[in-house]
Amino acid sequence: MKKRIMAVALAGMMALSLAACGGSSAKSEGTTAAAGSSAAEAKSDSGEKKSDGEGKNINVIAKGFQHQFWKAVEKGAMQAGKEYGVEVSFQGPDNESAIAQQVEYLDAAIAQQPTAICLAALDTQAAIGSIQNAMDKGIPIIGFDSGVPDAPKGAIKANASTNNYEAGKLAAKETYALIKDKIDGASETVRIGVVAQESNSQSIVERTKG
């Protein structure tokens, strides 16, 4: 989970960097973190001043909002908004199977003409029209978590995510170490099942392959 949260933080920093460079000043609805001038002047760990994001806003669209992980993502996104002086809104569907609901949130975000959008797509193909619309409007999208695989070329400006294939391999390796004695002592073929939470997410698909 720590690696996934770090990936989200990187996505936020990428989007905030875009926000600092320019874009729309339209306001977004929902959970927001509107920072004042003092936040814009906050210093980073290196001692340098962070970018002044006054008038910039970023929509973060996650895969959900009820799970503890997504609550941590929201907290990090809002904190980053305060530190960089950028207005941040956070939305996620009721669960990670609510693909249509996430697409609705994405369409609503695009209509607001934000400076940038951070997106962890549940199903890229279902959102392909919306992603193309964002690109046509010049709204940069930053992918995080599983990213936005197979999106139109040029639509995703950057992606911050775990190498899920390698993560799956590591999980299998560690599992084998725990059950090696049982496997070595088995008199019949050993079968190991992999149970994933859903089948649409690219991150889950890649972990299963790994």
The CATH topology label of the largest domain is Rossmann fold
Average pLDDT over all residues: 77
Instruction: Tell me the span between the first and last alpha carbons.
Output: 17 Å
Tertiary shape: elongated
Uncertain regions spanning at least 5 consecutive residues: 1-7, 17-49
Query: What's the CATH superfamily of the largest domain, by name?
Result: Response regulator
Number of helices: 7
Order of helices and strands: HEHEHEHEHEEHH
- CATH architecture of the largest domain, by name, is 3-Layer(aba) Sandwich
Number of domains: 2
* CATH C-level label of the largest domain: Alpha Beta
Structural class: alpha/beta
Tell me roughly what share of residues is in helical segments.
40-55%
What Rg is obtained from the alpha carbons, in whole angstroms?
Answer: 19 Å
User: Largest sheet at a glance?
Assistant: 6 strands, mixed
Strand adjacency order, main sheet: 1-3-2-4-5-6
Number of strands: 6
Which band does the percent of strand residues land in?
A: 5-15%
List the helices and strands and how they pair.
Layout (H helix, E strand, L loop, with lengths): L1 H20 L9 E3 L3 H4 L16 E5 L6 H17 L2 E5 L7 H13 L4 E4 L8 H9 L4 E4 L11 E5 L3 H21 L17 H8 L1
Parallel strand pairs: 2-3, 2-4, 4-5, 5-6
Antiparallel strand pairs: 1-3
Helix pairs in contact: 1-3, 4-5, 6-7
3D architecture notes:
The structure is a single chain. Helices cover 44% and strands 12% of the residues. The protein is built from seven helices and six strands, in the order αβαβαβαβαββαα. The chain has a six-stranded mixed sheet with strand order 1-3-2-4-5-6, sandwiched between helices. The longest helix has 21 residues, at 164-184. It is elongated and about 65 Å long. The two termini are 17 Å apart.
